[in-house]
Amino acid sequence: MGQGLGPGRLGRVLISRGEVAARVGELGRAIRRDYTKRSPLLVGVLKGAIVFASDLFRAVSQPSGLDFMGVSSYGAGGHSSGIVRLTSDLSVSIEGRDVIIVEDIIDTGRTIAYLRRNLATRHPRSLALCVLLDKVARREVEVPVDYVGFAIPDEFVVGYGLDYNGFYRNLRDIAVLDPTAVS
Ligand code: IMP
Ligand code: MG
Is the CB of 109 within 6 Å of ligand 1? Predict the structure, then answer.
């Protein structure tokens, strides 16, 4: 493995699996309440949001759909390239649907700004955003967020779907990557 493509080293647990589960349950109930008698389509953003989206989908527990979209904005080592690229598209039309984008984390806001613009051109009935983690201090592009799990400090986090060079997505807790061990 080349330099900078290793797993780094795990630091402290920032949000435990229990805290995540409780908050995801709350978000699911909030969405269920806000979308009474509607059938929202949850659009998870690959790959980081796979774990969150599947837990949230079950927590919403009402007739609703789940689809995925792939975007890539980060190069090796978790540094943003600044350019957002669509790597895989939805499998269904969202015209007239109540769409909720489900994302793992907002950092600069570029990925979400791109996705919002892209999906808005397809004429959904409504378009909302649910994000598990919000690194508020890093925001460069303002985007409206409808549901937030946790506001977190400016540290690189992994676990619960979030990765570093492809590692740690299957970690059950959300942990900080030890910055002294990152090249
Ligand atoms: P943004 O476009 O700068 O808002 O970046 C958002 C994307 O960057 C997320 O979808 C993540 O894939 C990735 N990202 C940002 N911060 C982190 C982090 O702390 N850990 C893991 N991935 C991150
Ligand atoms: Mg992501």
Answer: yes
71, β-bridge pairs: 86
* Residue to substitute in 107, 135, 136, 176 for testing ligand 1 pocket (most ligand atoms within 8 angstroms of CB): 107
Residues 141-155, mean pLDDT to the nearest whole number = 97
For residue 2, the model assigns a pLDDT of 46
> To which residue do tokens 């995925």 refer?
68
Between CA 37 and CA 108 the distance in angstroms is 34
Q: Taking the model in full, what pTM does it have?
A: 0.93
CA 45 to ligand 2 centroid distance, Å? 6
Selecting among 98, 107, 134, 163, the annotated active-site residue is: 107
pLDDT surpassing 70 at residue 78: no
159 pocket-lining for ligand 1 (C-beta < 6 Å): no
Show the tokens assigned to 128: 């909302």
State the Cα torsion 104-119-125-52 to the nearest 10°. Answer: -10
Instruction: Determine which helix (DSSP H) or strand (DSSP E) holds 18, and give its type and residue range.
Output: helix 17-34
To the query of whether residue 146 is one of the catalytic residues in this protein, the response is: no
Q: Which two tokens stand for residue 101?
A: 């984008």
CA dihedral 167, 101, 19, 174 (to 10 degrees): 20
